[in-house]
User: Fold these one by one.
Assistant:
Number 1:
Amino acid sequence: MTARTLTYFVSDLHLGARYFSDAREHEKAVCRWLREIEPHCRRLYLLGDVLDYWFEYRHVVPRGFTRFFGTLAELADRGVEITWITGNHDIWIFDYLPREIGFRLVDGPLEETIDGKRFFLAHGDGMGPIPAVERLMRATFRCRLLQRMFAAVHPRWTVGLAYGWSASNRTKRKIEAPSPAPLLKWVEQNRRDEVDFYLFGHYHMLFDQHIGNSRVIILGDWISNKSYAVFDGKNLRIEKISQ
């Protein structure tokens, strides 16, 4: 039996996004990658925006992501420790998916020791100076009362609105690519020497640089990079799957 010794990190899969020419093939590609790493994977960290949109209702399950959820559940059933850190697109995961699939859900940054190294893990949004409009949006999305009101609207209206908004934001991103400067400034101001690795998503770019004694990594995405990080207990490396 192959030993499970590796830890994988991935973010910004944006499954279900309408800007993919073939969203189903994109989902299949993610599932193929999960099955390929499964024999060696001890831990899998999903650093947010795994789904382009998700809202969890009390008694019904939104359509889509069947292959992905099934593959993720297979990994969990085979002993892979899965941690899902929510991003700004999949913030509305509550308790159904963690219980049904079997993963740990974390809303916000996570710091823990992995094979003797200290990791700081977060999606990356909301770190550093936040514009007033973004602060208002974050507060709105996290408001329990507004979440209940949103759940009362029929999905035929909310789902289309959410995916349309995402596609519009993606078009804007291509024109005005967000700078990671606020995030890097936050790391510089809050970094601690005992943290070996700071890992983030959100910015849809590959970034790997030392700040002080810590290594800071932005994981890229699966829109243009198809990138991820793997840690073997000593070394952490960035890899890409073949296009």
Number 2:
Amino acid sequence: MPRYFLGVDGGQSSTTAVAGDETGRVIGYGRGGPCNHVKGPGGREKFIDAIGGCVGQALESAGLPRDTAFESGCLGFSGGPADKEQLLSGILKIEKRTVTNDALIALSGAHAGGPGVITIAGTGSISLARNAQGKTVRTGGWGFIFGDEGGAFDVTRQALRAILRMDEGWGPPTALRTALLEATGASSANDLLHRFYTTDFPRPRVAAFARLVDVAAEAGDRVADGILDAAAQQLASITAAARRQAFGADEKASIAPIGGVFRSARIRERFKALVELVEHNQVVEPAYGPAAGALLDAYRAAGLSVVLSDVPVEK
């Protein structure tokens, strides 16, 4: 009988599924809506629709019936697996099911299942490292109040702090004031501060304003320069801490930066320069996306070592 395997990346904005055969060839791909807020209003229904929809698409594109059973499946979720494990048994037929967090499958995807380090800088930030012996280390990822240094929310927060200091007369002038007020419609830095405390500005929306810091830096704003350089330094620091705990000083370590913050050329270049100051470190592009990483982990859980083929680009 044919054997089928499943990898799922369940995130805050969308859910992606990839199905593979026993040779490592990806035979199906599907996408669905977000599935991370299971405990929120309508969360269970949204979770079931997202998982069922994207896996159903993957099976349909593979030419398989929707009730196909998988020998092994790995599913990684934003926010972790604790509130999702029970729901999955009623949605999918998987003989050996692994439920984990999205950072671990991103690590597997970035290094094609091999050893390496990733640093994710999206709304928040986290770094993970895994060595050849399977030891996995995490640094960062402690949320917007106590951590997430160098993430997009933190970049915007530092910009708001800068314009508050400017308004109060104890910080240098910066073009960020005009940029943020115009982008939000706020009348002053104080007005903007209070708007950011409301539900009209959830964390992802606040984080999206980080792009304005990049624009200001490109135009020569020194305050914006400092914010981006500090973000790169913080991301390099959590990367170094994860690398140091998983790899010996003389071991080669490949490091993949992931996430929207690294679209900033200044942050990416500064991060690369700082990380590669350490001998044997090399910054690399991710080999695959997290859904493919989950698929690799599904094969691993079944005792199979495969090389993926026909892998689609994850969007």
